[in-house]
Amino acid sequence: MKVWDAIIIGAGPAGCACAYDLASAGKSVLLLDKAEFPRIKACAGGLTMKTVRALCYSIEPVVRQSIDRMVLEERDSSRIPVKSRKTICVMTERSELDAFCLAKTIEAGAVFQRIQGITGIDERADEVVVTTQDTVSRGRFLVGADGVNSQVRRMTSDSPWFRKAFAIEANIPRHALDEDLVFDFAPVASGYGWVFPKRDHVNVGLYSLDADEKLNRTRLSTYIANRFGNSARPANFIGQHAGFGAAQHHIDRDRVFLAGDAGGFVDMLTGEGIYGAVISGQSAAAAILSDLNQKALAKESFVRLTENLRQNLGIAERIATSFYANPQRGFRAMKMPLLRSAILKGYADGLNLSVLVKTARRLLPDRA
Ligand SMILES: Cc1cc2nc3c(=O)[nH]c(=O)nc-3n(C[C@H](O)[C@H](O)[C@H](O)COP(=O)(O)OP(=O)(O)OC[C@H]3O[C@@H](n4cnc5c(N)ncnc54)[C@H](O)[C@@H]3O)c2cc1C
Fold first, then answer.
1. Is ligand 1 within 6 A of the CB of residue 172?
2. Which of 211, 201, 202 is nearest to 184 (CA)?
3. pTM of this prediction?
4. 164-242: which CATH topology?
5. 240 CA to middle of ligand 1, Å?
6. Centroid of ligand 1 to alpha carbon of 243 (angstroms)
7. Helices (H), the chain
8. 15, 70, 148, 354: which has the fewest C-beta neighbours closer than 10 Å?
9. pLDDT tens, 46-81?
C-alpha cells in the first residue's frame, strides 16, 4: 500500500496551507475532507493583510472588497473612526475563498478525496494509519486541520487545553455603498457585534467568549433590527464555535500535528482564525519537510515554528481578559493615536503583540 508523505484531514485554510507547501515541495499529499467544495463555512471571511501576505498565491480573484477604514463603537454609543493609508483587511466569501485555495492546492499536486469521517488513527514508530469508513491510508505524518470539532484532536488527545467561543452571522442586502466596517462592543458581553461590507451585501454577526450570552438567531435578528431597521431582511444565519488554547498546548505527538481551529490557533480578542490557520498549517508543512529531508525531528520543528504565533495568541488571551473585563479602558487606549496605530498595525500587519503591550503600558498608567 502507498505510504503518503503526509495525510491531511480538513481542506479549510489550515489544511490547504499545509498541503500546498508540501505538494509544492514535491511531497505526496493526501488531503481528505468530508465536505464537497464549494461548501458553506460559518465565517465573516475577513482576512487581515498579514494573512493575505502569508498565503503563497494571490487571492485577488475572490476578494469582494478592500477595507482601509473602520469604526469602533463603544457601549455609551461613542464612535472611534479608524482610517489607514494602507489596506487593513480584505473581505471574502468563505465558500469562494476555500474553493479557490483548494483548487490551487490540487494544482500544486495534492490528491483530494472526500470521506465520511475518520474511524481510526494509529500512530506507529514510522507512520500513521488512518482508517475511514471506506479506506485505509498510510502516511509518514498526519495533520489534523479538521476545524473546531476536530475528530483528529479528539481521537489523539484529551486536550484539556482546548477552549471555545461562539459566533453567529447573517447577511443583509447592502443599504449604502459607503457603509463602514464596524466593530460594536455594545450588544454582547465579552465580545462584539460586527458589520462587514462585502460589495453587494453586508455580513453582520455577534461573537462572545461568554457562554451565558446564548447567541442565537433571535438574538442576532434583534440586533440587526435595532441597527438596520425591521426592513433589513437577514438571511443565511449560521453559527459555529472558534477554538483557542494553542498557547497552552504542550505538543507531544511525533507524527500527528494539529493546525488551525483544531489546534486552538484562533485569536481570542478578535476571533480572527484564518491567520492562525494559515501559519500553523504552513508550520506543520515546514516541520514535516525538515523531517522528511532528515534535517530535524518534525515535532521539534513544529514547536519551534509555531512558537511566535503561540506566544502572540497567549498575549491576545491576556489582552482579551483585561479588555472585556473593562472595555472602557480599552477604548481610552484606542483614542490615543499612537496606540491606535500600533494596535491596528499589530492586527493588520502582524507586529509582535508584546511590542504592542509594552507601548500600551508606557502610554496608559495602571489606573487610567
Ligand atoms: C461566525 C464566525 C465568523 C468568523 N469570522 C472570521 C473572520 O472574519 N476572519 C477570520 O480570520 N476568522 C474568522 N472566524 C474564524 C475562522 O472561521 C476559523 O478560524 C477558520 O475557518 C479556521 O480554519 P481551519 O482550516 O482550521 O478550519 P475550517 O475552516 O473549519 O476547515 C475545517 C475543514 O475540515 C473539514 N472537516 C471537519 N471534520 C472533518 C472530518 N471528521 N473529516 C474530514 N473533514 C472534516 C470541514 O469540512 C472543513 O472543510 C470566524 C468564525 C466564526 C464561527
1. no
2. 202
3. 0.96
4. D-Amino Acid Oxidase; Chain A, domain 2 (3.30.9)
5. 9
6. 9
7. 13-24, 49-54, 94-107, 151-156, 217-228, 274-292, 298-305, 307-325, 327-334, 337-349, 353-363
8. 354
9. 999 999 999 999 999 999 999 999 999 988 888 999
